[in-house]
Hints:
four-stranded antiparallel β-sheet, Alpha-Beta Plaits, alpha+beta, elongated, disordered N terminus
Amino acid sequence: MALVVAMLLAGCATTGAPPAADPGISVTGTGRVSLAPDIVTVDIGAEARAPQLADATAEVDRRMRDVLARVKTPGVDVRTIGYNIEPIAEGRQPPPGDAGSRIVGYRATNIVQIKTRDVAGVGRLVDAAVAAGANLVRSLRFGLNTPERAEGEARRLAVHDAAARAQQLAAASGVKLGRLLSVTESSSPIRPVGVAMAAVPVEAGQLDVTVVVQARYAIDP
């Protein structure tokens, strides 16, 4: 009986013990591809203020009709992203719910997002919009129309970088690098570099497509 109990206890102890961690080498690999942007978006709009709501909306609508007539050309995609009407209170902005404030006017804004593949001509496009009546120019952004190919190349470079780092660590440690056990991707952002966000003319600069991976390799005996 004592022997049976001892065997059961030994079995329970073996089952509950955590498995020993496999020896291995963990590394981080980074792949980066730099290339020129092939698409640009910019938010352009008009704002008008007037004592009467109808006058404010009429003015902003007139401006935007002229702007759209100038910028809507083949290859340019335009979509409305904001249309707002706000009352203008007399003096300091009153707290919410203050019924005693007096409305002295209205502010109307209409903003569209313009997307074009003519990266080199975006300065001229903004100039044309401003000349037509736009008085709001915001958020000029450069990007890639199809970033998948660049991301794939950056991903390949990241895995190769991880393998090279693992090999260096193995050699420095006096061990033999084994097979790849796991690899996970940490991130794949697209970050603009050297983009001028001020008034035209603008410089597109380069885009860095970066992929980071975490890799784990075995150590061969």
